Protein 1
Amino acid sequence: MSFIELAKDRYSVRKFSDKPVEQEKLNLILEAGQIAPTAHNNQPQRILVLNTPEEMEKLAKCCPFRFQQTLALLVCYDREASWKRADFDNADSGDIDMGIVGTHMILQAHELGIGSTWVMHFDAEIARKEFQIPQAFVPAAILMMGYPREDSKPSRLHNDRFEITKTVFYHNY
Ligand SMILES: Cc1cc2nc3c(=O)[nH]c(=O)nc-3n(C[C@H](O)[C@H](O)[C@H](O)COP(=O)(O)O)c2cc1C
């Protein structure tokens, strides 16, 4: 599959089967996150792997979604490690870095037949308490993962993309 075919084929999976993700596949997914570019190569990603029923119960306390996932990656960045635009406005690259790290991982997962949904709708403070996340770590995303259930299908939003002329502009046009 070409990259564009892979990117088009991926969709947010919100129904997972109970088949666990094999450790070697999880390792590849995590490696894809490890090699992602980050600002100044500071590599501030700190990824908590959640894959037990007890951890899924804790996850349910901070996140309202019930996808029956068998695996979740709580993607954090260390705000003491992320690059800051110190010469100008001190903007923090952490969220952008995590966007790239997470994207690498969900696309690698898809290539392996493992579905995912990126979740931002969660209570970061509860997650911090439940999983003893250090204060310097900022929880940026939860990537719900697992093998898609047989009846999993893309949501209406998956195919609901604007015309490219609405989102891309040529300066001299
Ligand atoms: C930053 C971000 C946050 C998101 N948060 C949630 C979320 O909290 N819950 C959810 O069900 N989907 C969430 N999504 C998934 C989007 O709704 C989904 O990617 C979008 O509707 C396009 O559908 P598709 O992924 O199937 O192509 C999020 C996606 C992104 C990129």
Note: The chain has a mean pLDDT of 97.
Protein 2
Amino acid sequence: MKETVKDFFDKDTWTLTYVVHDAGTRDAVIIDPVWDYDPAASSMSVHSAEKVLAYVKEQGLTVHYILETHAHADHVSGSQILKQHLPGARIGIGANITAVQKVFKGIFNLDPDFPTDGRQFDLLLRDGQTLQAGTLKIETIFTPGHTPACASYIIGESVFVGDAIFMPDYGTGRCDFPAGSAAELYDSVHGRLYKLPDHYRLYVGHDYMPGGRPLAFQCTVAEQKRSNIQLKEDTTRDQFISFRQKRDATLNTPRLLLPSVQINIDAGHLPPPEPNGIAYLKIPIRK
Ligand SMILES: [Fe+2]
């Protein structure tokens, strides 16, 4: 099996969505889709999902799974939109999503019956679990730190790492969200991703095009170990933890954090509509 990877870049949130397929059989999975949200108008649109669906149709792909690397805090997941059009596809996420649901249920004071056992997702993936999407084999490895539920997906020699690590000139994912951990991120990247074969390609969940360089979204394990500006092969755990904590203290809250997290911990569902037919999000006010 040789995996074919197609990237889709959402300029509004700097997010990469991937469609991975086996060129021989057309079996496919979608990783980290986007549902476009305009916070000023509080309106949603589906142009990102439509691009993915057009590609799936044009290539004649059978999508078996829609996989989330984590509950994103910077864009709304397009998984439910895609699932409506791909009824055979099941939505999967790392099983530790339950920890994220519990934390944010409290933060948002969600309805007491909001489930925190992950049942909103079709599939809760365990560390080391292998999924078979037709002829496409997907191995899940847990890579927590950015969030406690982060997972990476290995398909052939391609690895979809979400926000654990970015391109070498940008560094790593922030670790200051509730239940995030710089120590865990170090262990995930240095202890797991950097132990993969040097020629494996890591596909990142975002690219911020530092310094105005063109979009880039994949590089080899060897290249990351040699040149990631925040975490190289010879970076120690203590060095990384102290760097990451200092850096995180300077970062702003992501623009779409509040809407994104509320929807994403509910597997991409909007809250149920109120009697007037309109769905509302909750926005806590901090004093
Ligand atoms: Fe993220």
Note: The mean pLDDT is 97.
